Amino acid sequence: MGWCLAGLLSCSALPCSAQASAKTTAPVFENTIAQRVMACATCHGKEGRAGPDGYYPRLAGKPAGYLYQQMLAFRDGRRHYGVMARLLEPLSDSYLMEIALYYAGLDLPHPAPSPARAAPALLQRGQQLALHGDAARKLPACAQCHGAALTGAVPGTPGLLGLPQDYLNAQLGAWRNGQRRAHDPDCMARIARQIEPEDLVAVTAWLSSQPVPANARPGPA
After folding, report:
1. CA 3 → CA 10, 11, 13, distances in Å?
2. 111 Rama sector, left if φ>0, alpha if ψ -120 to 50, beta otherwise
3. Distance of alpha carbon 155 from alpha carbon 167, whole angstroms
4. Which residues contact 133 (CB under 8 A, 6 or more apart)?
5. Pair 155, 97: CB distance under 8 Å
6. Where does residue 154 rank: exposed (0-12), middle (13-18), buried (19+ CB within 10 A)?
7. CA 191 from chain center: how many Å?
8. Among residues 29, 38, 54, 39, which one has the least CA distance to residue 86?
9. pLDDT tens, the chain, 221 aa long
10. Which of 62, 117, 177, 185 has its CA 20 to 30 A from that of 109?
11. E strand intervals along 126-208
C-alpha cells in the first residue's frame, strides 16, 4: 500500500512539474552592443571598468580611435596576446569600431588610486618626466601627447591616469622589446627604448598614484 501511495503521489505531481517547466522560459537575449560585449567583462570588468588584478585595463571612456586601433593591432599581430587575437580574428573592422564607440561613450567614476609606495624623490622625478620631460635626454613629457591633464586626447591617444603601475610597466616593457608596435612613426617604441629603467619606474610610480580628475574626458589633440 505504501508503495502504491508513493506511486500515486509521484504521478499526481507530474502535471504540476510539467506546468512549472512550461512556465520556465529561457533568458531573453537583447541584441544590443551592451549585451554582446559582456564577454569582455570576464577580463576587463563590468562595463569595462578594469579587471581586479591590475593587468587588464579599463576600457570605459577611452578614446574610440585608440580602442579601435588597439583591437586592430591585436587582430592583425602588432600586439601579442593570444586570447585577444582569437576573440577578434573573426570580427570585421566596422564591428570593432562599434565596440570602440560603445566603450568610449561610457562615463563612469574611477576608483581612488592605490597609495604610493615609492620614495618621495622617485615620485618627484616621475612627476617631472610626466609633465615636463627631460630635454637633456631628449625625452618628451607624457603630457605632450597624452594631454595636459594626462586624461588622453582624441581621436587616438589614451589617458595615463587610473592605471595600475604593473600595467604601465608591462606596456612600456612591451614597447621596449617589440611586443607592442604601432604604425609609423612609432613614437612610443622610441621613447620606451630611450628611457632609463629607473626613470621608467619613476614615471609609472607617479602616474599610478595620481587620482583621475572628476568628469575627466579625453581632450583635443
Report:
1. 11, 12, 15
2. beta
3. 22
4. 139, 140, 141, 142, 144
5. no
6. middle
7. 22
8. 39
9. 443 333 333 333 444 444 444 456 776 778 899 999 999 999 999 999 999 888 899 999 999 999 999 999 999 999 999 999 999 999 999 999 999 999 999 999 999 998 888 999 999 999 999 999 999 999 999 999 999 999 999 999 999 999 999 999 999 999 999 999 888 889 999 999 999 999 999 999 999 999 999 888 888 87
10. 117
11. none
Query: Packing angle between helix 197-208 and helix 120-132, nearest 10 degrees?
Result: 90
Query: Cα–Cα distance between 175 and 189 in angstroms, integer?
Result: 5
Q: How far apart are CA 152 and CA 218, in angstroms?
A: 4
Domains of the chain, first to last: 31-109 (1.10.760.10), 120-208 (1.10.760.10)
Helix, strand or coil, per DSSP, at residue 215: coil
Beta bridge partners of 157: 153
Find where cell 608591462 sits.
Answer: 170
- Size of the chain in residues: 221
CA–CA separation, 140 vs 161, rounded Å? 18
